From TrEMBL:
Transmembrane segments: none annotated. InterPro entries: DNA/RNA_pol_sf, RVT_2. Residues 11-256 form the Reverse transcriptase Ty1/copia-type domain. This is Reverse transcriptase Ty1/copia-type domain-containing protein. It comes from Acer saccharum.
Length: 499
């Protein structure tokens, strides 16, 4: 606490003034946190003074509050680049990041508990700098950092506003990723990477964490000799297994069994069943699995999507499905995404089931994009409208995949790697025919205009859709439970392997 309060005084975060008439001072409190390293060991203990931002009034204490963070797909793409091109990959942390932001509004706060100035008890703090807990604090910090890094000659990517890129005259470059106060810096020249770190340290109170080994709770392992990088969540997965008392369960080979179809008819039908399910940590378990799924585990995307549709009123069969996913995690907690090799080309795979959702008869879109032998982007999601024929479901899935393909293509171009076209593999010949031929037929003329975006990108050559056999479609696992052999093959093709 003393260290935190001294940092606030040093930063001149506030000044003591009488409270103006008609204004209300916002309260605050101390928050305590244990900071752990990449091996889940205690690194340090932290205390932070946090403003009770929920008491702020819009239009008086704040206006705009939105602040971007780097996309996880971007993080994975840069890790893949670092592996293939043997880039230096360094990590930094900004100490008390939100204190660097400049406030535009006039905000008053009570003096911190335990640190009220003697003889000035009737005064309040007029904030001159941003502080944790303020609704606009993340935005203030982002604007401050953004203006500084751009002043150093870095370009903010249009495809990701928390990714910055600078190319030097000799062909060297530096990439910086920003997630609130965590940074990854990548580049081929160690001296230039160190130079950027020095520039940042002169402007902000930084902590140099050296070679990257952890980002957003994900562990980073590296073998520079073989040019491989692994992205793992094994510590997090073991933690959630303990949380739900599944650490000693019997492992299984797939997240969900073949032909399992969950529906709302399995929800509690009487008060006794509802009371029983109210004691089950369903939402917490699904949310925990969802975080793993979006970060490093595309192999559980379809299963987590299926159980997440019943968060409002889960039944015992839904809960059994969640526990089965945890049993699968129990046997694969050491599995991590691996990037490496010499090829740096984007490939996409897309698939759709047909009306397998028993409640709304909607189809599921699934796609996965791989770079350097590992998955960088994936999704398993119900389509927004009901598809009539199977072809329509596959075509709508292809449209969503094309949108992601174009974004990844632009991201790669802004990072200095231009790929003329992205190959997107699809196992539906009829969907390919519609994408390549603009004619409207009786069975497809009703398809919404938005879904014909796929025709545009295929025609201009940005995306090359190609036919692939269902047995070789990596997106198959994103739309339905499949047999063990195919599932394990898909998982391996995603770059998922034990560390």
């Amino acid at each position: 606490m003393q260290e935190e309060i001294e940092a606030l005084y040093k930063n001149k975060t506030w000044e003591l003034v009488p409270l103006p008439h008609g204004r209300k001072a916002i309260g605050n409190r101390w928050i305590y946190k244990i900071k752990r390293d990449g091996n889940d060991q205690v690194e340090r203990y932290r205390a932070r003074l946090v403003v009770k931002g929920y008491a702020q009034k819009e239009g008086i204490d704040f206006n705009e509050i939105f602040s971007p963070v780097v996309r996880l797909t971007t993080v994975r793409v840069v890790l893949a680049m670092s592996a293939v091109f043997d880039l230096y990959l360094e990590q930094l942390d900004v100490k008390t990041a939100f204190l660097h932001g400049e406030l535009e509004e006039e905000i008053y706060m009570l003096q911190p508990e335990g640190f009220v100035k003697e003889g000035k008890e009737n005064l309040v703090c007029r904030l001159t700098k941003s502080l944790y807990g303020l609704k606009q604090a993340p935005r203030c910090w982002y604007k401050r950092f953004d203006s500084f890094i751009i002043s150093l000659g870095y370009n903010r990517l249009n495809s990701d506003h928390c990714t910055y890129y600078k190319r030097f005259g000799d062909g060297d470059f530096i990439i910086l990723l920003l997630y609130v106060d965590d940074m990854l810096v990548a580049g081929p020249n160690k001296d230039r990477v160190q130079g950027l770190k020095a520039q940042l340290a002169r402007e902000f109170d930084m902590k140099d964490l050296g070679p990257a080994n952890k980002i957003l709770g994900m562990q980073i392992y590296r073998d520079r000799k073989d040019r491989k990088i692994w992205l793992s969540q094994k510590n997090y997965l073991r933690k959630i297994l303990r949380r739900f008392n599944m650490q000693d369960c019997k492992p299984i080979s797939t997240p969900l069994p073949l032909n399992l179809k969950l529906s709302s008819s399995m929800s509690p039908s009487n008060e006794a069943e509802r009371m029983e399910m109210s004691r089950v940590p369903y939402a917490s378990a699904v949310g925990s699995l969802m975080f793993a799924m979006i970060c490093t585990r595309p192999d559980i995307a379809q299963a987590v999507g299926a159980v997440s549709r019943h968060m409002a009123n889960p039944g015992i069969e839904h809960w059994n499905a969640v526990k089965r996913i945890l049993r699968y995690i129990r046997g694969t907690s050491d599995v991590a995404l691996c990037y490496g090799g010499s090829e740096f080309t984007i490939r996409g795979y897309v698939d759709s089931d047909f009306a397998e959702d028993l409640d709304k008869r909607k189809s599921t879109t699934g796609y996965v994009f791989t770079i350097a032998g590992g998955a960088v982007s994936w999704i398993s999601k119900l389509q927004t409208v009901v598809a009539l024929p199977t072809t329509e479901a596959e075509y709508m899935a292809a449209t969503q995949a094309c949108k992601e393909a174009i974004w990844i293509k632009r991201l790669m171009e802004e990072l200095g790697h231009k790929q003329e076209k992205i190959i997107l593999f699809c196992d539906s010949q009829s969907a390919l025919h519609i994408a390549r031929n603009p004619a409207f037929h009786s069975r497809t003329k009703h398809i919404g205009v938005q879904y014909h975006f796929v025709r545009e990108v295929v025609e201009d050559g940005s995306v090359d859709m190609q036919k692939i056999h269902t047995k070789e479609n990596l997106a198959d696992v994103m739309t339905k439970p499949i047999n063990t052999d195919k599932f394990i093959w898909c998982r391996s093709s995603y770059g998922l392997a034990e560390t």
